[in-house]
User: What shape does this take?
Amino acid sequence: MSLLSLSHVSKAYREPGSGQLVPVLKDISLTIQAGESVAIVGPSGCGKSTLLNILGTLDLADAGDFVFEGESIAGCSTADLAKLRSEKIGFIFQLHHLMPQCTVLENVLLPTLALKVKPAADVLKKRAEQLLASVGLKDRLSWKPAQLSGGERQRVAVVRALINEPRLILADEPTGALDEQNAESLTTLLLDLQKTTGVSLVMVTHHPAQAARMGRVLTMHEGALNR
Assistant: This one.
């Protein structure tokens, strides 16, 4: 079953100074199935992160259509898009973006603050504790990010992305700041969680070996998607 689809999506930005339009995405059509894992690879500057931002509604296309769970997002208000992101989409970035003043548990629970309708606080806390235990961090609940290793911080970021039980996880170079061993470990963790939760996973990566572990690999070149 299709989770989302892009049809003939294009995006351009104005070049600072000259104001000239620079095409970034060119006629992108793409379907992501519910529960599948997809890698997006390609050279730097080819549009991978822009595509991920459009899939996450952090940016909007200039042309084309974006359908999520059978409904076009065209005409959605800013509030509608924010609700979609908070309820249906989880984000993992190269840098973990954890709040340094918050504990591991508090960082994981932060996305729940954006939910319009949310489970009881004790239910959310239990879910967070169970997820943290599943990634080997049950003894780190009260620790601050500065007390964690790089790999542990990224695992917290993964759990934070899952706390609202999203349908889609978007990961932009999530292993880019990790050594090879931790990168492999995090990729394994993401795929294990993707399979056990049924969430769709779309990951941008420069690592061919990690991309090959995904269910499907898409290659971008100069803003176009090569199949």
